[in-house]
Amino acid sequence: MGSEVNRPLADFPANIWEDPLTSFSKSDLGTETFKEKHSTLKEAVKEAFMSSKANPIENIKFIDALCRLGVSYHFEKDIVEQLDKSFDCLDFPQMVRQEGCDLYTVGIIFQVFRQFGFKLSADVFEKFKDENGKFKGHLVTDAYGMLSLYEAAQWGTHGEDIIDEALAFSRSHLEEISSRSSPHLAIRIKNALKHPYHKGISRIETRQYISYYEEEESCDPTLLEFAKIDFNLLQILHREELACVTRWHHEMEFKSKVTYTRHRITEAYLWSLGTYFEPQYSQARVITTMALILFTALDDMYDAYGTMEELELFTDAMDEWLPVVPDEIPIPDSMKFIYNVTVEFYDKLDEELEKEGRSGCGFHLKKSLQKTANGYMQEAKWLKKDYIATFDEYKENAILSSGYYALIAMTFVRMTDVAKLDAFEWLSSHPKIRVASEIISRFTDDISSYEFEHKREHVATGIDCYMQQFGVSKERAVEVMGNIVSDAWKDLNQELMKPHAFPFPLLMRVLNLSRVIDVFYRYQDAYTNPKLLKEHIVSLLIETIPI
Asked: What is the spatial distance between Cα 463 and Cα 127, in angstroms, rounded to a whole number?
């Protein structure tokens, strides 16, 4: 293949982490002491949680603190049991609706129930409205209450007008409220306006909340110390996982074999860490990060490297699932490398799934990748023909080209106890939660990447398709995309409510993957421009919390 081929290469920013592991402090000294301390504190926190049950409302506030401090996973079973009791208890709804239960408290109760899949009615906010059906004016003087209302309003589902109103009301005042709040509350309000807790990556939210909680008058020192030690102990594990992926990347000689892709090992790891941070998902994070590196290479190959003919040959090989690309197929070595590494990676997972008695799961895993490749291929064809798809055509293909079917399926692989064949079959049947996540992924990315994509030859985005079909301005098209994303979040929220179609941990993967999109793509394409994620990577993987 001569260098005379005209390729639509992208000017991707360079990798900013030559070797992230050199940035880590080597002092895991004293880990054993911390583990013992952790164990003692865990007992004390559990005791405090159990004794808080005497007052159901204080108990829910305690649960909220456990969640935000990132330690609720230790007490998941007890929390769900307790919420189940309160949710079914007749006195509880009365308590929430009483005058004494202020906006701050009602907001927290609403969030906590919905977070665990209990659909507490939105009418708990009715008492905060005046006779004209508007939220009472005096509420804006309550900074904590307004923030709580704003965070609660992220959990809205379709047909909940009061939640839509609560979101508009709280958002319109919070900016001004933050300017007259104490510095530590002002930072929290600004962070929430940028990424509300419900749409944030949980480790980032935890790291920020630990700093915030420390300054609060109501701070429980035992709980704070437990959260800090827990965060630091998990960080050691997370660093080891990143080291494992980095070694794999070096051993595969990825950097020299595929020069035109975005090399994003650390950012791919953050994506995976956003999907699950708990210790039992350690292997899952490693596999998901490796898959994300492969998906990035595939995406960039279709988008910014392969010619039409090469991509057709590549896609045909993948549709047939050839074990390796035959030498006589005229595609560049870098594309053969991507193909062979990807197929080998999937075949190995398939073998492992078979050995675990999860027969048939590998078939669906491969199918999810083939569907994604076909989605990329469709975009390449449109680009070649200079064709601007109708918005419906674009939306239908966008669900595949978002890559989220393949990614969700990959996150299920190491969830051995809950992701059996029926889970993969369900995922392949386009369940509403999957489609919502794919829409969030594609359109959030379209809105933020719009300017960068237009610097080179690139297929029309959803914005272009909408402008062309309906003859509207870019601003109007962006507004419509934003509404589509908001509606998809409402669908997602609804699918997280009980009764669940499939085990809750599987649904949580889809929610968490959508959260990653919000953090990575809401304002700019931070995966392509890694400087935008640098502070998060430093705070989660490089800096230890001082104790």
From this structure: 41
Residue 542 DSSP one-character state: I
User: Which residue, 301, 69, 302, is CA-closest to 202?
Assistant: 69
Give the CB-side neighbour count of residue 281, counting CA atoms within 13 A. 23
Calpha distance 287→350 (Å, rounded): 13
For residues 449-482, one letter each, b for 16 or more C-beta atoms within 10 angstroms of the residue's C-beta and e for the rest, the string is bbebbeeeebbbbbbbbbbbbeeeeeeebbebbe
CA-wise closest residue to 409 among 284, 321, 316: 284
Please tell me the distance from the alpha carbon of residue 169 to that of residue 147, in angstroms, as a whole number.
11
Q: How far apart are CA 460 and CA 480, in angstroms?
A: 16
- For residue 184, how far is the Cα from the chain centroid? 26
Q: What is the pLDDT of residue 450?
A: 76
Question: Which pLDDT band, with edges at 50, 70 and 90, does 206 fall under?
Answer: very high
Contacts of 512 (CB under 8 A, 6+ apart): 201, 202, 274, 275, 276
Q: What pTM did the predictor assign?
A: 0.95
Tokens describing residue 18: 């030559």
CA–CA dist 454, 373 (Å, integer): 22
Sign of CA dihedral 278, 281, 285, 288: negative
Report helix, strand or coil for 355: helix
Q: Which CATH number fits domain 253-542: 1.10.600.10, 1.10.1280.10, 2.120.10.30, 1.10.10.10?
A: 1.10.600.10
Secondary structure class of 135 (helix, strand, coil): strand
Q: What is the dihedral of CA 297, 482, 517, 60, to 10 degrees?
A: -170
Distance of alpha carbon 371 from alpha carbon 319, whole angstroms: 9
User: Which residues does 335 contact at the CB level (< 8 Å), separation at least 6?
Assistant: 301, 305, 306, 310, 314, 325
Local confidence band at 460 (pLDDT 50, 70, 90 cut-offs): confident
